[in-house]
Amino acid sequence: MQQKSTLAAQHDERVILAAYGDSLVAGWGLSTQDGLVARLEAELTQAGAGQARGVRVLDFGVSGDTSLDGLERLESVLAAKPQAVLLEFGANDCYQGLPLDETRDALYKMVSALRAAGVAVFLAGWRTSMDLFKPYDDPDLAGLVPLAPPLYTAEYVERFNRLHADLARRLDVPFMPHILAPLEGQSGCYQADGVHPSAKGAALLAQALAPLLLPLLNAPQPE
After folding, report:
1. Does any domain span residue 6?
2. Mean pLDDT across the stretch 180-196?
3. Which of 6, 12, 44, 68 is 20 to 30 A (C-alpha) from 153?
4. Is the pLDDT of residue 223 over 70?
């Protein structure tokens, strides 16, 4: 059975989209069928991505990954030979208060390497705020609420929120300023932690992303 599965994968003629990011791509807390990757593949298929060939969305999401962690996995993404990549990193860089130059450099290297290989890139950003590490009154959470990293200042927040836009402009790639923006103002879109999308949130996010990714998947490829 393993050999047959491998052969089937090798002869899969569908256009490949690599969803490359952290827990927001990996679908933390959700079943596989309710996660963003499965939902996105369904939306793109319905929209005619890949045209006659169809589309296959591969999951390159790893929960907890920073942009530097993602850079270390770049070769595996390139090896999948995607036509396009949804590139989503930044939330964990922000939570850890990583130096902005490190985040910017890692994202720059990923985008540059993918484009050099002929892969179209869609960049999904992350926006933050100063009250990200707000204290809670619930005594059950005492000692469990993370403290703001030393670098997490008002200046850091302001510069971080410009990072993805500046990079997208510099490299001329399409982008979404904040990956979770399509869920703002809608109820029932998050799990209990208030950060990771629920099944409903993942479905709505896939609906928002599909039309933005479609042109990359239907673009003619060089002979």
Report:
1. no
2. 93
3. 68
4. no
137 in a structural domain: yes
In whole angstroms, what is the distance from residue 150 CA to residue 104 CA?
Answer: 19
pLDDT of residue 8 exceeding 50, the answer is: no
**pLDDT, tens only, 22-66:** 999 999 999 999 999 999 999 999 999 888 799 999 999 999 999
Class of residue 190 by CB neighbours under 10 A (exposed 0-12, middle 13-18, buried 19+): middle
Query: How many C-beta atoms surround the C-beta of residue 83 within 10 A?
Result: 21
Return mean pLDDT, the chain: 89
CATH number at residue 181: 3.40.50.1110
- Total residue count of the chain as it appears in this document: 223
Terminal CA-to-CA distance of the chain, rounded, Å? 34
Q: Name 41's Cβ contacts closer than 8 Å, sequence gap at least 6.
A: 17, 55, 56, 57
Cβ atoms within 10 Å of 76's Cβ, excluding its own: 12
The domain in which residue 158 lies consists of: 12-218
Count of domains for the chain: 1
Give a yes or no: residue 187 inside a domain. yes
Q: Are 214 and 41 in contact (CB under 8 A)?
A: no
Express each pLDDT in 84-123 by its tens digit: 999 999 999 988 889 999 999 999 999 999 999 999 999 9
Residue at 3 is within a domain = no
Strand pairing category for 55-61 and 84-88: unpaired
Taking a C-beta distance cutoff of 8 angstroms, is the pair 124, 163 a contact? no
